[in-house]
Q: What sequence folds into this?
């Protein structure tokens, strides 16, 4: 029995050590900033896509949020807020707004050491619009470890692909 407990302790200690080393490795060598870029071709004019994106009543479906407080106006400096299903409150400030072409905002999560900047850029093409959704996250502390792990698994890319494809589906009907 003593031998079993000894080896169990060694194995569990080794696993714990590996987990700590992996977390430290992600913290030190993880990407900073974490960037995500999703692109899709939408069969509609840029102004149609832009109008759909800036319809805040639709953001609950687009971003999987439960509450949205839209900005007072579209100009840079306007503030908005949304709440994720887990209760995380995200405050946003529009940083760039060019009707029909660019929508950019800085996002901050309350209580989390992270700053995000996202943008939707629309370019006309022969077949409609090339839409690019881009996000750059500057994160610190444990959030950096989590974001690095998400980036390595492709989970964040998959989420942004889902969002931009939801926009495409909504526009193309």
A:
């Amino acid at each position: 029995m003593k031998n079993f407990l000894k080896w169990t302790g060694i194995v569990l200690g080794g696993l714990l050590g590996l987990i700590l080393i992996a977390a430290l490795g992600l913290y030190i060598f993880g990407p900073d900033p974490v960037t995500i870029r999703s692109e899709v071709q939408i069969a509609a004019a840029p102004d149609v896509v832009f109008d759909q994106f800036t319809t805040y009543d639709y953001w609950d479906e687009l971003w999987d949020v439960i509450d949205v407080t839209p900005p007072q106006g579209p100009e840079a400096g306007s503030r908005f807020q949304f709440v994720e299903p887990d209760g995380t409150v995200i405050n946003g400030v529009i940083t760039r707004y060019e009707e029909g072409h660019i929508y950019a905002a800085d996002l901050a999560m309350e209580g989390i050491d992270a700053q995000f900047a996202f943008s939707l850029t629309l370019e006309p093409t022969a077949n409609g619009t090339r839409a690019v959704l881009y996000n750059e996250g500057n994160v610190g502390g444990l959030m950096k470890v989590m974001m690095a792990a998400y980036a390595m698994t492709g989970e964040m890319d998959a989420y942004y692909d889902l969002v931009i494809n939801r926009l495409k589906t909504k526009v193309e009907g």
Observations:
- Strands lie at 34-42, 67-69, 79-83, 89-98, 102-109, 114-125, 128-139.
- The mean pLDDT is 82.
